[in-house]
Target: Protein kinase domain-containing protein
Amino acid sequence: MADPVSRPEYPGASTPPHSPQLPQGRQPSLRGSTPIAKKESSARYGTEDPGSDAHYKRHEQEFRRYIVGPLPKHLFVNFLPKPSEPLPARPPYVGNLSGLLGSGTDEKILYPHIHKQVNPYVRPGFELSITDNPKDARPKGSLHPDLMIYPQGAVPQKDLVASARLEYSEIYIEVKGSVSDDPFRDLNPHRQNRESHQFLKEGGNHVKTRGQLIAYAAYACETQHRHCYFSVLICHHKARIIRWDRAGALVSESFDCSDAEGIEFLGDFIWRYTHASPLDRGWDPTVLVSSEEDIEAFSKKTVLEPWYDPKYVVTLLVWPRGDDDQTNGEFHEYLVSRPVVSPISMAGRGTRGFWALSKKDGSIVFVKDTYRVIHRDSNCEGDTLKTLLHHNVQNIPEVHAHGDVPDGNHGFQHTWTQHYVDEYYCGGDSPIVPYVHYRLVSKTVGPSLAHAPQTSRELITYTQHAFQGLFRFDGSSCPNELILCSLVTALSDAYTFCDLMHRDVSVGNIIIDRVTNKGVLIDWEMAYKVDRDIGARTPYRSGTWQFMANELLREPKTPHLPYHDIESFFWVVFYATVLWFAPKMDNESVIELIHDLFDYYRLDPREGLTGGRLKHEALLNDKRVASTCLPPTSILYAWLKKFRYLCFKLDTDIFDRPSVEETFKIFNEAWQTILENRSFTNENRFKRKALTINSRMPDAIPIATRQSGSFPPRADSIPPPTSLPTHRLIEASDLRGIKYPSTAPVLSNPLKRQHEPDEYELRSQDSGNRSELSNDAGPSRSQAQTQSLRNTCSEHSATDNCDRETPTNGSGGVTVSSRPKSRMPMGKGKARAL
Model:
């Protein structure tokens, strides 16, 4: 097939300008199911049922800003380029939906009519099935589109009859009984002010319907190896086509299927889709069918047994980037089966994690499959890790290979949604950024913090290792038996030697290296390069919602500072304590605390999703710490009490903070003092039974342990539940004005066609003038102020409550073309403002 689409160039001068040709004669894997992560391997942090109205609502609130439309319907046929060989003649017109009852018909009556009119356009080799079966025996909360197109024979007939199987679908069709159920509003052709057009209809049913559409697409992309997905919405006789990718969704204008033109257009799209190549249908061509020998080799690795399923063993290709090319330009091949983690959100990076077997040397590695953000400050995680290793930063993972994922047409897989944000018919107000598909292979393997610590002292020790990685400490201050020092080392070293903030400290991003028995801080994808002379200039929030600092949640435009990473460690330990080390808390109390303290959010009309209010209140006194019912002699109780107070001081005394270096030292010394006090009791981990965090996976709290000698799952990028803002929350409203540098892939317009000059096409628009984002540095700090915090912390006893109000601070944050005062100043001295 001729290449009808302009592809992004590969970044970096040391790499070829185009991706390599994929291996010839190898069959891509089009199996409909990349299963979701097994329940104990998937640390879902939320408390809602998928398929519930609340779940749909949160899906919608998370994703609504990434919906672009209405686009001319002809574009969606152009998204499926004509093959080099002429298409077979399309079946003749057989009828339309004009004979249906009036608007308001029960949607179930529409299913056979739609099936009758659309099915003739489905190419042999595919089948259209009505899949909304009232006798579906699957558990409550399952996702049930009304009709779906499957590859013929992909789903056993008994399963097709019994239930909807989104994991095998090519396209789903959702049906509503009334035109008024359409959750989108087309542009009035006589309207002059297109930018003020509100494409999304408001109201409970419209929000729920959008949430349904998003949830279905998210699940399909979660369980399939795809770079995009298509779906159809039919509201009585009006239809729309939607194209989904990790940047957002492109929605067509509605078209009328009650006449010949409309139903023939829908039929033409279906006909073109079912004749398109797997790549153009959205499949990832770098996921290949594995041979019987490969499957047998994978099955023999006993440590991989928990993630082995013979039906799902596939080969992932990784094209090495730059200096990683140790194979003379050849692909690295890795065998994978069930993922350790899988994305449950449609928005964002869609990160999967796999335990993998290297076909080259038989070693066990970890593969992170994700979509990386492209903007002027972005960097590949593999390059970031190499920089950290070059500066001898401790307690970080070692890279085996990494690189962007080829598309099979001498380009690389990237999102398309961002190309249409500024088109005149879309209004231009969606904060969408581009993503490129990327894979990172790590040699460092071990269980995550969600699985490894068996005692409360181990929990505190492992997390200190990660904390120390952000700032350099004298290793001699850490007793050899205390493993926790290494995580702190990773965080501290990165800031000291590389001017990097991690920005995503979470339970899933701390693993325990079984070789060194140290905590390792992983997932440096969102690490941000600090310019200490300019000040804080982070263009967006990022992080795992439950563990983000309260101020970032309460005020989304607040620049991300190292102090926020420090606070995240408190929430990581608090969360772990509640789940695994507080046996006196009943399940109801645990769910209530997680929901209120970690999941809390609200939708602000101007700021978007905000939260953190209850986190802020929890720092004011020890009531939340006391709610864990831990005895005062517990080492965890002492740690939580001390660090609650230290975080409270950082959160409230924003104009009286020590430097970052001093702050790291204060926290590390407090950590060390508690660990060295042998009078504290050391609690054993316990398994909390019959507690459902996510109904798709009962008992999904990540508390399972493995037998010695096996590898518990490592959560390389464990996503939060879809009830949260995104897998890694990315606020991109300010990124639309940023011009991408030459070092990033040039994401050209995907519709510069070499074919079909007679059809409606678009050209890419330059975004014009660009602005830098920056903030002024904060005020300076005296040595007396640093000593004041030290003295206050040392005087703080186990009985202090520190009930006081948070001082009112001025507004501020990152804005385009301005230099506002940051409301989170940093101390002077060695630590200049970020």
User: Anything to note?
Assistant: The first strand starts at residue 67 and ends at 71. Residues 49-275 form one domain. The CA atoms of residues 404 and 438 lie 4 Å apart. Residues 204-223 form the longest helix (20 residues).
